[in-house]
Amino acid sequence: MENLILVNKYNKLNSNFIPKNLIEIDDNIKSTIIESKMKVDKTAYKSFRLLQNEALKKGHKIYINSGYRGYQEQKEILIHFIEKTDYDKAIERVALPGHSEHQTGLAIDFAVLETIDEDGPHYVKGTDMFDDEASKWVFKNAHKFGFVLRFPENKEEITHQSKEPWHLRYVGSKDATIMYNLNMCLEEYLDFRHIPFNKGKGNIPIIGIVGRPQVSDKKYPIIGIGEYYRKALSKNNACVITINPPQNVIYNEFSPKELLRMTPKEKEILETSLNMVDGIILPGGNRWYEYDEFVANYALENNIPILGICLGMQTLGYVDNLKIATPKYKTYINETDIDHHQIGPEYVHAVNLKKGSRLYEILKQDTIMVNSRHSYNIGEITNEFKVYGFSNDGIPEYFENGKKAYGFQWHPELMQEYDLNNQLIFKDFVDLCRKG
After folding, report:
1. With contact defined as beta carbons under 8 Å apart, do 376 and 332 qualify?
2. Are 311 and 285 in contact (CB under 8 A)?
3. In sequence order, what are the beta bridge partners of 367?
């Protein structure tokens, strides 16, 4: 069953996953991206050598172009392609860390030798392999040696991956032969065998962004959500809705202290919205109301994934600290050498991350650079939340409660166009909401 492990857009490996049976090889084509010694699953490699030798008898010369890639190597490749193109184009071509089959050690990208001249060997390029005779021979015979073409033509809606004629996946000769004869990709075969997995198709999480009182350009009071929050979530295939406040008032006309407390019916109305969502964004802003606190508390009590950003982080900390007998929570104005309220720069200061947190497991970095747009910070935390990220002046920048709630003092939604770390933050949050 280990040979049938599924890794795709909706099924992720942990960042610390390393296959048990890896061996180093030296007969592969040298990678221009990964400089370390090539590794492959031992059984998969032996089977590929048999396939390679059989192909040679038919006059076809095939080689291993890529084998095992760890989580960090996959991240480096993604960064490489982002630098060459941009984020959107890169993720169309390169799997996100944890979502690459190469991390299993069972995936092999093969190459077909076309010619050799004074410039060296030349190999059949990209999707041209679909029309190449040697590649066609591999497609028809690989199952005899335990391999399947993992991302064939006309299966994109099932695999959620564009066609790749070079990508072979070892599953064992018995399963590979059945898949070949029934024209099934791995997802179809697992379904056929009644082996459970996250199918992804139709599994689109609904994520609610808490609406903030705003004023339109024509001075009309509105409840709105930041476009950058919505865009960051939509990019990761989430359905985004606005969680509206329930009271029959114009919020812009009242400060939080001036408003009457919510009635039981108004709380019930708000609960109706919260019962619809798979996750919640508590966004930044200038001030929070009772409904913000209600949303935060409801998410914490019902284990709904919630991400607090800037003011939203401060709200989460406040609500959590109210649960202890003698709450100590308050917000503090920033009075340090770092200017934490800067609108223009892409990067303002460093955040030092502690190990043991969800964020560290995602990024695997001790220090990251962030933007910064806040005038206050959360000060001390005394209940479930624990601070795992600080700026160099000691201000708390990231916390979590070890469950499904965490907060950022910076604005990761504003860094989506240029920073991989913050792109991964939203990718991970949507995945968390998808799993429930």
Report:
1. yes
2. yes
3. 352
Side chain identity, residue 212? R
Place of tokens 């076309």: 114
365/191 Cα distance (integer angstroms)? 37
Other Cβ atoms within 10 Å of 165 Cβ, number? 24
**Residues 18, 70: contact at Cβ < 8 Å?**
yes
pLDDT band at 200 (very low <50, low <70, confident <90, very high): low
Q: Per the structure block, which two tokens stand in for 52?
A: 């390679």
Sign of CA dihedral 154, 160, 163, 167: negative
Length of the chain: 436
Q: Which residue has the higher pLDDT, 147 or 403?
A: 147
| Separation in Å, CA 270 to CA 177, 239, 287, 382 | 54, 19, 19, 28
> What's the pLDDT tens digit per position in 106-123?
999 999 999 998 888 999
Tokens for 146?
């335990």
Count of C-beta atoms within a 10 Å radius of residue 367: 11
| Residue 95 pLDDT grade (very low, low, confident, very high; cuts 50, 70, 90) | confident
pLDDT reading at 34 higher than 80: no
Neighbours of 56 (CB within 10 A): 11
- For residue 221, give the 3-state DSSP assignment: strand
Classified as helix, coil or strand, 215 is strand
Torsion (CA) 286, 287, 291, 294 in degrees, nearest 10: 100
Which DSSP helix (H) or strand (E) runs through 150? strand 147-151
* pTM greater than 0.85: no
DSSP-assigned letter for residue 356: T
Residue 357 near residue 400, CB atoms below 8 Å: yes
The amino acid occupying position 135 is S
Helices (H), 357-412: 358-363
Element (H, E) at 352: strand 349-353
- Give the helix ranges, DSSP H, for 35-114: 42-57, 71-84, 87-93
Q: Which residue has the tokens 């916390």?
A: 399
What are the contacts of 401-404 at 24+ separation with CB within 8 A? Answer: 401/300, 401/320, 403/303, 404/303, 404/304, 404/305, 404/306, 404/432
Contacts for 192 with CB less than 8 Å, ≥ 6 apart: 182, 184
Q: What is the pLDDT of residue 329?
A: 67
pLDDT in tens, 319-349: 988 887 666 667 889 999 999 999 999 999 9
Residue-averaged pLDDT of the chain: 91
148 closest CA partner among 169, 125, 174, 123? 169
What is the tally of helices (H) and strands (E) in the chain?
A: 13, 22
